[in-house]
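Listing 4. Sequential folding, example run.
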Amino acid sequence: MINNNEQYRGLAKSTNIKINSEPKPHAPEIKKTDTRRGYIVRRFVQKTNDNFSPVSEVSRDGFGMMSANPLYRAVSLKWRITGTKEEIKKSNKASISEQLKIMPQLKNRLVNFLEYSKI
């Protein structure tokens, strides 16, 4: 019988993925173009085999690397930053809801619907 560590090593070898690769936390920077557009794209990753593991926000590059890693699940969403408080809250709550099937703990990671907003 093959244990989990052996399975991970075999999977990593077959896909050229580092088993020890960890997500690097990232906080988005809001640019003038983002403010004009009205939203930013936020990217999150979580270990695939643990629904209660921490959800980490990552950069675009980190997202590309981690989403190619079968040991992690990854989601991206549009995060509204302009509008009225109610518009922003409603829009961001809807963005989160769309990703809950993939990453249920996202609802516990993103509790401030006005985060990064430019009101």
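-- end of first protein; second protein begins --
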Amino acid sequence: MNIARKAALLNLILFPGWGQIYLKSYKKGIAIIIAVLAGILSLLWSIIQTTIAILKISPLKKGSVTFEAVIKVTVDSIKAMDLYYLAVILSSIILILILSVIDAYMTGKKQQSVIQGLENETPSDPESSSPGA
């Protein structure tokens, strides 16, 4: 598998930004990871805040806290959230994912062509390429 495809797959399979880190574009990779994590944490924070608001209005009865009850409250809180906000955040995360895959592929292609160019380059005069000449 070539470098470009491997980097693109790392972005899809592991997490957006890992392909850039694989290609040693650390600043770009970390920026992408931070952007996606910020979106995910923003969604989680909103769900938690809405869940807390729902529980303040109608708290769970003592002894009735089950996994199903927690899931029901979480689903209710997602339903109560602003759909526009959810759509914007999810769309942003998906857009960053797509752009990171494209960027990793293109960067990998550039690196691959540089490597192939160096492999195909043969010096015509060995003395002219020596640093002491």
